[in-house]
Amino acid sequence: MTVRFDLTAIDGAARAGVIHTPRGDIRTPAFMPVGTAATVKAMRPEDVRATGADIVLGNTYHLMLRPGAERIARLGGLHRFMNWDRPILTDSGGFQVMSLAGLRKLNEEGVRFKSHVDGSDHMLTPEHSMEIQRLLGSDIVMAFDECTPFPADQGVARASMELSMRWAARSRDAFGDRPGHALFGIQQGSVFHDQRGESAEKLRAIGFDGYAVGGLAVGEGQEAMFGVLDYAPGMLPADRPRYLMGVGKPDDIVGAVARGIDMMDCVLPTRSGRTGQAFTRRGVVNLRNARHRDDPRPLDEDCTCPACRGYSRAYLHHVVRAGEVIAMMLLTWHNLHYYQDLMQGMRDAIANARFAPWQAAFHTLRAEGDIAPL
Predict the structure, then answer these.
(1) Catalytic annotation on 118?
(2) Helix 325-351 to helix 355-368 angle, to the nearest 10 degrees?
(3) Above 90 in pLDDT, residue 1?
């Protein structure tokens, strides 16, 4: 079976659809929980699925270093290893290598870097990235690229974009023909319209199963990000999924979908859950705040997750302040549940040609803020 994308509804620039894979369908717009090291932190795989997630993300860089792609392959592949039988997308490792700064050296061949785990030397190239992702067995594979830092002047951005396009062609060649698996190319070009257009043209000429908008959510701010998203998705093929990498906050996600994005991922809901922050329809709630200590209400009265069905704000405040593991578990579950509810709300709104009023109601409720107890 091949990986196929069907658009089912369009409302303005917002799109709803389904990515069909041998391991199951991915409903879009889709949010992918991040399972960096073969685990979504503080969650069991079956609980991640219970939140409504159709797909999770794994990290090539971290998995190649520990426990190693060859070991995972010997143990039956990443799906079996982490007990997740639905689709997995793996990133190429480019973003993590970029973030190593002084520990890496980049040239035309690829990137040589020192492991943050044990200081050992490694070389990551487009061909090696494709081989690691093949060993992992991921359903959606990302082309190897250089994530352009921000800010970057036009010369630096162009050199980075052109290198990534050469690496994209090498990734395509190394990926080969793998029925049932998809390869996504990554558009670069920083915040420069002409470079984004050239990158999209080169990617279309190479040919990919899906396309990502890369090089955003790297410090440019929401206004600049939305400025790029006002035109960048439209440069990519309309009949293929469009993936915005590393985004983000709920209002980032809604704004991206409004501009034609189909897929997103971010560590924010899980990381926030481990630090006492919860995302709700009325914005972010900090459970460390003392105003919650005598509050018998649920975190979100309209939410059906375990944290909201079975526990009060007072209890959640207590376990957060006490550093109890259950606080991380409950708030992570809640945040992932909220994100998946958000995606389902957008899918329904697009399907019913109601996205604009849905978006307005989303912002209105958040602007009202969390309601303090009487």
Answers:
(1) no
(2) 150
(3) no
